[in-house]
């Protein structure tokens, strides 16, 4: 569905994407994970055939976006990072008029709009104004609109940014149903839980480069330990810092990450780490033992959290 070799994107002297290789297979959910400014959105705009490639080779649905842009765009569904719904139209007409842009017959578009409103659970809002919808409803309407032309490939740029947890989970459910129906999904996100929920495979991007690739589970196995012990200390004494405390527990795990509010000790047995910390006379105000996540993978690869 997508094949990129040595793909680059430059804006003047700034190189946003620095020679990446990507392959996306039919029917899978593929993700670009990384912090803001990693090059995810620049890559997505090239895949959407709306931003020219600066260097390397890119094929979308077997076509060259430099010469076949209109043909590619006609077979894509795009859910942009920011909603671009027409606030002068009601919910139904946002779908109906958008569908007519693709030259689809009126009755077909009307039936498709009704079907999509039911799919995204907005049938009862068909004649409501866009401004009256919640943020989650607007995102679901934007996804419905991106499906009007029955796309071969659906691109989603930060699909749940700004949504509350309940709205995010409703949207995840709709996207999971699309994947089950065989739609190929490509999404960017800086939410590690979203990537773990939705993606069959993903790449981790940082500063325009791919620093890791694989399934969420494979990445966790390769770049992290089985468990993580989170230690929160009340820094009370002068000169006492998380860095100094990290030195005292450094040999209790495979590695230690120092965050502003806590220490992360990576090991195969987090409970044993907590017990050893207490045996050394250290008294964290709170402890948590959990499984490793993609957030831990990102810390290992870049030394930064997913959202800077």
Automatic annotation (TrEMBL):
Single GO MF descriptor: ATP binding
Name assigned to this protein: ATP-binding cassette domain-containing protein
GO BP term, example: response to antibiotic
Start and end residues of each ABC transporter domain: 2-232
Species lineage: Bacteria, Bacillati, Actinomycetota, Actinomycetes, Propionibacteriales
InterPro entries tied to this protein: AAA+_ATPase (IPR003593), ABC_transporter-like_ATP-bd (IPR003439), ABC_transporter-like_CS (IPR017871), P-loop_NTPase (IPR027417)
Domain of life: Bacteria
Pfam assignment, any one: ABC_tran
């Amino acid at each position: 569905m997508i094949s990129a070799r040595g793909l680059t994107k430059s804006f003047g002297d700034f190189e946003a994407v620095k020679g990446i290789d990507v392959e996306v297979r039919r029917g899978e959910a593929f993700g670009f994970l990384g912090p803001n400014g990693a090059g995810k959105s620049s890559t997505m705009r090239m895949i959407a055939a709306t931003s020219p490639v600066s260097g390397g080779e890119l094929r979308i649905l077997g076509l060259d976006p430099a010469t076949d842009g209109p043909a590619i765009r006609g077979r894509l569904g795009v859910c942009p990072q920011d909603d671009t719904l027409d606030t002068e139209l009601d919910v139904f007409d946002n779908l109906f008029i958008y569908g007519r842009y693709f030259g689809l017959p009126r009755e077909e578009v009307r039936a498709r709009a009704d079907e999509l409103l039911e799919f995204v659970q907005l049938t009862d809002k068909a004649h409501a104004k866009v401004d009256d919808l919640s943020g989650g409803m607007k995102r679901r309407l934007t996804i419905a609109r991106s499906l009007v032309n029955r796309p071969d490939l659906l691109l989603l740029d930060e699909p749940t940014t700004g949504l509350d947890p309940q709205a995010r989970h409703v949207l995840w459910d709709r996207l999971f149903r699309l994947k089950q129906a065989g739609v190929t999904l490509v999404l960017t996100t800086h939410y590690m839980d979203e990537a773990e929920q939705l993606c069959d495979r993903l790449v981790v991007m940082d500063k325009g480069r791919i620093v890791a690739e694989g399934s969420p589970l494979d990445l966790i196995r390769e770049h992290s330990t089985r468990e993580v012990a989170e230690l929160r200390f009340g820094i009370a004494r002068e000169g006492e810092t998380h860095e100094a405390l990290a030195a005292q527990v450094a040999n209790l795990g495979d590695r230690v990450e120092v965050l502003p509010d806590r220490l992360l000790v990576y090991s195969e047995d987090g409970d044993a780490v907590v017990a050893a910390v207490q045996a050394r006379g250290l008294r964290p105000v709170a402890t948590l033992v959990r499984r490793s996540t993609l957030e831990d993978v990102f810390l290992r690869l870049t030394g930064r959290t997913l959202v800077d």
